[in-house]
Write a structure and sequence with these properties.
alpha+beta; Claudin-23; transmembrane; Butyryl-CoA Dehydrogenase, subunit A, domain 3; two-stranded antiparallel sheet; single chain; about 290 residues; transmembrane helix; Claudin; about 5% strand; tight junction
């Protein structure tokens, strides 16, 4: 079975979110401070959750700078440390569950376990999005996040942007993997559903079995321009009446004699005037009986 699209999408987005959140947590780039009065113009200070680095265009970056304003003791920084580490740990757990649930090397994935991993990854994305949003909200508030007074300016740095992107990718990946619950729920509901009874036909649909009309024999056995012989008569069931009428039979043919029975009786015209007595005594030369004999 091919891996479903929702699982593939979740397995691609979640590791990317984990990598971005890891860089955001470790890199000292949540806030950029610049414009110091007692420092060169090109000096900038990168502040993160664990370290601060000083950078100048003509020199290399120098990390491990002292915290002169109590930045690391600020509440948004402490909460961000805890939640970002928690987000990384929960993401690793979610990816482990996703690997066991998807199981690309097996024929059928474990849909319930893949959906559970999606829920865990979604929660990990929330754990990463909350501290990033809170830190951004108090970015310019010098009473919550200490920073030197004006004209020093504070800006958003790259680690904060990576934290936003990583958390959003975890949310999308977790939601995509959570959609794996759909086939599992469908299968469970199909097993629990009672068997459906026979479907009743619609009231507006009525089927009537009309009897086939009986045809006369002259029509019943006539097709294709010629008469067909009637089928063999089946023995009538007891108590069943036969319905029909006899066809008229043709008149018998008359007998015709091919021999001329009057041959030999024809006489000349002179003898036709004689009486009946003389004709009766005239001999008949035919072998067949003459009219006089009849």
């Amino acid at each position: 079975m091919r891996t479903p699209v929702v699982m593939t999408l979740g397995m691609v987005l979640s590791p990317c979110g984990l990598l971005l959140n890891l860089i955001s947590t470790l890199a000292p780039g949540w806030r950029l401070v610049k414009g110091f009065l007692d420092q060169p113009v090109d000096v900038v200070l990168f502040q993160g959750l664990w370290d601060m680095c000083r950078e100048q265009s003509s020199r290399e970056r120098q990390c491990g700078q002292p915290d002169e304003w109590g930045y690391f003791e600020a509440q948004p920084v402490l909460v961000a440390r805890a939640l970002m580490v928690t987000s990384l740990a929960v993401t690793a757990l979610g990816l482990l569950l996703a690997s066991l649930g998807v199981r690309c090397w097996q024929d059928e994935p474990h849909f319930a376990l893949a959906g559970l991993s999606g829920l865990v990854l979604f929660i990990a994305g929330l754990f990463g999005l909350i501290p990033v949003s809170w830190y951004t909200h108090f970015l310019g508030d010098r009473t919550v996040l200490p920073a030197p007074a004006s004209p020093v300016t504070v800006q958003v740095s790259y680690s904060l942007v990576l934290g936003y992107l990583g958390s959003c990718l975890l949310l999308l990946g977790g939601f995509s993997l959570a959609l794996s619950w759909a086939p599992w729920c469908e299968e469970r509901c199909r097993r629990k559903a009672p068997p459906a009874g026979p479907r009743r036909s619609s009231i507006s649909t009525v089927y009537v079995d009309w009897p086939e009309p009986a045809l006369p024999p002259a029509i019943k056995y006539y097709s294709g321009g010629q008469h067909r012989p009637p089928p063999a008569a089946e023995p009538a069931a007891p108590g069943k009446l036969k319905v029909g009428f006899p066809m008229p039979r043709p008149a018998p043919r008359s007998y015709t004699n091919p021999v001329d029975v009057l041959d030999g009786e024809r006489e000349p015209q002179a003898a036709a005037s004689q009486g009946a007595s003389s004709r009766s005594t005239r001999p008949c030369h035919s072998s067949l009986p003459c009219d006089s004999d009849l």
